[in-house]
Amino acid sequence: MLSDAIRVIYVELSKLQGIMKKFIKDMSNLDKWALFFQYASNPKYRENLKKVIDSKEALQMEGNLLMSIRQDEHGRAVFRSRRIYESDLASNLATAEDRGKKETAKKIVNRFAH
């Protein structure tokens, strides 16, 4: 523990061979992260690692990021477009909510002004 906000954990990835044989429900979060770091780029473990990734939301996000990095240029462009679309959609929703709040406030003010 470096501070209240920072903790460093050292994992010797070379000693992980036995962890892949565990049932996912018996793995700790540290086991899952260690497996991800050790085997994410190894196609031999792709199916098993996918099950581990699917069991933890943070690993799902990292897995998606890893896949975006590994894709060809066309795949990266599609991934970026999807991210931009999702970001624009969230922004448009927030804008619509703000407009709705302003319209509601105007109606209330007008109602009491008359």
Could you explain how this protein is built, in words?
The chain is mainly α. Helix content is 66%, strand content 0%. The protein has helices at residues 29-39, 46-54, 57-70, 73-113. Helix 1 packs antiparallel against helix 2. The longest helix is centred in the C-terminal third of the chain and has 41 residues, at 73-113. It is elongated, with a radius of gyration of 23 Å. It starts with 28 loop residues before the first helix and ends with a helix. The mean pLDDT is 77.
Q: Which helices and strands, and how do they pair?
A:
Layout: H1 29-39, H2 46-54, H3 57-70, H4 73-113
Helix pairs in contact: 1-2
Shape designation: elongated
Mean pLDDT comes to: 77
Biggest sheet character:
none
Structural class: mainly alpha
Order of helices and strands: HHHH
Number of helices: 4
Radius of gyration in whole Å, from Cα? 23 Å
What is the strand tally? 0
Name the beta content range.
under 5%
Report the helical percentage: 55-70%
Low-pLDDT residue intervals, each spanning 5 or more residues: none
Distance between the termini: 63 Å
For this entry, give a set of tags.
single chain; 114 residues; mainly alpha; 66% helix; 0% strand; elongated
Summarize the structure.
Helix content is 66%, strand content 0%. With 114 residues, the chain is an all-alpha fold.
